Amino acid sequence: MERDDFIRLLSPEGQELLSKSAEYAEKGDVVKLVSQLRAQGHDALMVAAVLTQAKLRKRGVAKFGPFASRMLFTEPGLEQASRLSVAALHAGRFRDANVKNVADLGCGIGAESLALASLDIPVKAFEVDEVTAAVATYNLAPFENATVEQADVTTLDLNRFDSLFFDPARRELGGPARERATRKFDPLAFSPSFDFVMAAAATKPTGVKFGPGHPHEGIPEEAEAQWISVNGDLVELSLWFGSLARHGIKRSALLIDGAGKHEIVSESTVRKDAPLGEIEEFVYEPDNAVIRSHLLGQLAEQLDAHIFSPEIAYLTTAKELRSPWLKGYRVLDNLTFDRKKLKAYLREKGIGTLEIKKRGSDIVPEQLRKELQPKGKGAATLIVTRVGDAHRVLVCEPLK
How many CB atoms lie under 10 A from the CB of residue 41? Predict the structure, then answer.
């Protein structure tokens, strides 16, 4: 969002049009809607700004529920914002630690501050970008215990705050730079820098939000690390320091779904491997929070399951399991991965609808589907994976 667009939206005309944003978001013919609003005398730039907010508010419902209907968003701000359900868990840690106030450092559009203020925790939010700070101010206006300031957090005196929450910006990289970033942890890719954040976290109760792909070697020994999945979507890694960290827990995987919250914890940072065995009748794909947290061994122990290949994060058992952590499949056939033979197999079985999954294989599912040319009324899931040194394809049916 540009500065002028924000000013337009704050005007009486902009606020009036925003009040109808839900109605606009449901209109299928955008061209016709634009023509109608222009015919009513509304400026083209105003119409564009309002319709953009209508679209973002509709998308924002997934993260903010009914709050989205009165919020303003920027495209990157909505993309990077915490889901309100997750921000509420963060805020709960600060409440349980009885902190007097929180500095939300890199507040974005204000999701974390909104959750903190909702629990009556005084919060001071800081954001370096002018327009984003203005959007956060708008979103936090209903809360008297929340204020926003445009500032570079590295210039602040953090000693005046009882506790801290950081959401460091990560530089978006493309091409070879992105490839290097996925292989090596770069503290300079954060703003404020990783070293600045860790130095501040050593001084008082602190929470830090990172992307879920943050490497384990970038996690300090003294932190509690929690990977969070929402309905199977791995959304973040959060680190907790001081009184915000739970006693005796170093790593955890948390799953939030329609049935509530599910958690696997470990008192150690040392990875525990799952036992290795043969492929059984049932194969299970674990939630990514379990995989990223290196807690697959703990889950396997709980469920009496095992893996069938080192470093391949599928579990297998001879019996059917029901667990919120698992998506299950019954193995119908276990075949050598040969494209020609697989194509003939699918034709013989009349399988025309394919879900293709891979792990430990360099195939491109969309390309493989074109090569196989599936035809027929049947359906199956193909799991292309590695067993030892061999590539295999498991023909499966999903468990209901």
Answer: 7
